[in-house]
């Protein structure tokens, strides 16, 4: 098997360890709230700023924001070779904070 | 009429001007989320740190946090003479972001 089949996940908190204050801090920023809007459909997205409608931002800036979201438990990041794919942790967040994501996404 | 009857409100955004990102930023902090828990019952509270369960914090620190919440549209502050009373803008927030406060308060 070649390396192209290796898949891993970047570190993220377990569902039970997701903290409300960190989720709110993660989303209390214009760029990260814009990312939530992108991710709201539950699909996975590549981390390329252009693919996220954030082509005006430097890649390192977008990476910084995505790291905060992942570490807060808002998103998951899957690594496949040199590519990274991000997805909203919809089920985990709904289980941990019922109604919160629905209310947020409706307000976007 | 004496000065003790003068009542005013500190500046706050109109309902239509309350921004989700500012509300989330206001609540994405441990002290301010603790204040939300105090205010969640909808009653008005004096700004004395001790009355808010924040006696370990300096008065200026608590004032700073309360200002961020007020300017974000989360709370209203009424001034009566030398006293200030704060209350959650429950109705305004429910109108602006349906379901958000309920989800947040349930998660506290």
Folded structure, characterized:
The structure is a homodimer of 108-residue chains. By secondary structure, chain A is α+β, with helices and mostly antiparallel strands. Chain A has one domain (3-107): Winged helix-like DNA-binding domain superfamily/Winged helix DNA-binding domain (Arc Repressor Mutant, subunit A). The first copy, chain A, is 44% helix and 16% strand. Chain A contains 5 helices and 4 strands; from the N terminus they run βααβαββαα. A 4-stranded antiparallel sheet of chain A has the order 1-3-4-2, covered by helices on one side. In chain A, a hairpin with a 2-residue loop joins β3 (75-80) and β4. In chain A, α1 runs antiparallel to α3 (59-72). The longest helix of chain A has 14 residues, at 59-72. Chain A is globular and about 35 Å long.
Oligomeric state = homodimer
- Give unreliable regions of chain A as ranges: none
CATH architecture of chain A: Orthogonal Bundle
Q: How many domains make up the coordinates of chain A?
A: 1
What's the helix count of chain A?
A: 5
Shape type of chain A: globular
Mean pLDDT of chain A: 91
Q: Indicate the structural class of chain A.
A: alpha+beta
Q: How are the strands of the biggest sheet of chain A laid out side by side?
A: 1-3-4-2
> Quick one: which chains have the greatest interface?
A-B, 23 and 23 residues
CATH homologous superfamily grouping of chain A? Winged helix-like DNA-binding domain superfamily/Winged helix DNA-binding domain
**SSE run of chain A:** EHHEHEEHH
Radius of gyration of chain A: 14 Å
Residue fraction in strands of chain A: 15-25%
Tally of DSSP β-strands of chain A: 4
CA-to-CA gap between the ends of chain A? 43 Å
CATH class of chain A: Mainly Alpha
The CATH topology of chain A: Arc Repressor Mutant, subunit A
Give a short account of the largest sheet of chain A: 4 strands, antiparallel
């Amino acid at each position: 098997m070649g390396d192209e089949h290796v898949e891993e996940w970047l570190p993220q908190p377990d569902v039970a360890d997701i903290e409300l204050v960190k989720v709110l801090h993660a989303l209390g920023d214009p760029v990260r709230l814009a990312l939530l809007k992108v991710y709201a459909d539950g699909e996975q997205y590549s981390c390329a700023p252009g693919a996220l409608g954030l082509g005006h931002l430097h890649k390192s800036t977008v990476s910084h924001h995505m790291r905060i979201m992942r570490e807060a438990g808002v998103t998951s990041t899957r690594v496949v070779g040199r590519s990274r794919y991000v997805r909203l942790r919809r089920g985990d967040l709904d289980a941990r904070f019922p109604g919160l994501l629905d209310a947020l996404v409706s307000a976007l």
